[in-house]
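Side project, low priority. Logging it here so it doesn't get lost.
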Amino acid sequence: MEQYKLGEMEQRFAEIIWDNEPVTSRTLTKLCEKEFGWKRTTTYTMLKRLCDREIFKNDGGMVIALMSKSEFKVAQGEKFISEIFHGSLPQFLAAFSRHKKLSKRDINEIQKLIDEYKEE
C-alpha cells in the first residue's frame, strides 16, 4: 500500500501537480516556494519520491501525471480493500455499514452499481 499512501505534504504536493499539469519543474519549484516556502531542492526531493512510486514522471523537465487524481484514489481504495478485507468488497461494506447507517440514496446507488455490473 506504500505506493498509494501519501503523507499530508505529499498529498498537497500531488494536488499542485494535478491542478497544474503538465507543468515544468521550474514552474513547480516556484509554486512550491509560494505555497510551502520550499527551496528548489526540497521540491525536487519530493518530486523524486512520487516519481519513484510511479504516480508522476519528470520527463526532461516537464512533470506529468502517470495516474490521474481519480485513478490514484481508485488505486488507494482497491489496495485498502485488498489488504484490510482480503479483497472482499462485501466484507468492507458490512464493516462500513455497522458504523454508518446507509441512507436510501446510498443503498440505491450501490444497487444501481450492482445492476449495471450484472448487465455486463
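Brief comment: The radius of gyration is 19 Å.
Revisit when time allows.
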